[in-house]
């Protein structure tokens, strides 16, 4: 819990710094967007999390050099094959890759043996079944309903990062996002982990004018400015 408290404190302080020292329109520290999973078709590699779940604004070319197509990701293909076609986890490229790396002495998904990773895949199954039964809920909603009180409320959401042109990329919580895509959800809650400095500039200008630019009127990260 000490780590969770430090994480929350760092996130709040970072948000306040950006808002009051740098004058950025950043919204609440733990605000959630409502996004369409089908509009997120790339993931970031390497990602910004999990080393830091603290909100940030970053310049550079990360939104041009690090995105990878989700459709080509063996993890996503495994989720499709398993949940849509009923293929066993053990028959997927994703499972084979992870267990091969474990056999090489690497720790993957917190696992040091194939048996441990198979249990992780069972957790994917449980998460999928819970989402089918209860819908795609935020961590706070899960806590409030008593469905999952074991995880910190703010540290396990789907996290996206936003590139300079407003494009959403998957960062953390990929397994939840992939399940939402496989189940064809049209809206899910997500938290912004990083904004590109150029996109933040667009947000700041929109906030100053009181409305987003015409080409971004439906962007989920600008709904708080309408």
Automatic annotation (TrEMBL):
Residues 203-226 are annotated as: Disordered. This is ParB-like nuclease domain-containing protein.
């Amino acid at each position: 819990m000490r780590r969770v408290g430090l994480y929350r404190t760092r996130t709040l302080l970072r948000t306040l710094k950006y808002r009051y020292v740098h004058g950025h329109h950043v919204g609440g520290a733990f605000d959630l967007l409502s996004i369409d999973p089908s509009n997120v078709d790339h993931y970031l590699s390497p990602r910004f999390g999990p080393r830091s779940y603290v909100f940030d604004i970053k310049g550079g070319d990360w939104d041009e050099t690090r995105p990878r197509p989700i459709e080509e990701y063996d993890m996503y293909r495994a989720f499709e094959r398993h949940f849509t076609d009923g293929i066993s986890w053990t028959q997927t490229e994703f499972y084979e890759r992870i267990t091969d790396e474990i056999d090489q002495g690497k720790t993957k998904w917190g696992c040091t043996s194939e048996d441990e990773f198979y249990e992780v895949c069972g957790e994917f199954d449980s998460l999928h079944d819970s989402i089918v039964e209860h819908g795609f809920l935020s961590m706070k909603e899960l806590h409030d309903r008593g469905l999952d009180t074991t995880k910190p409320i703010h540290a396990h959401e789907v996290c996206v990062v936003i590139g300079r042109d407003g494009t959403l990329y998957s960062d953390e919580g990929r397994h939840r996002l992939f399940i939402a895509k496989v189940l064809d959800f049209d809206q899910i809650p997500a938290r912004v982990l990083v904004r590109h400095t150029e996109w933040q500039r667009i947000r700041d200008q929109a906030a100053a004018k009181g409305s987003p630019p015409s080409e971004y009127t439906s962007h989920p990260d600008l709904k708080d400015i309408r």
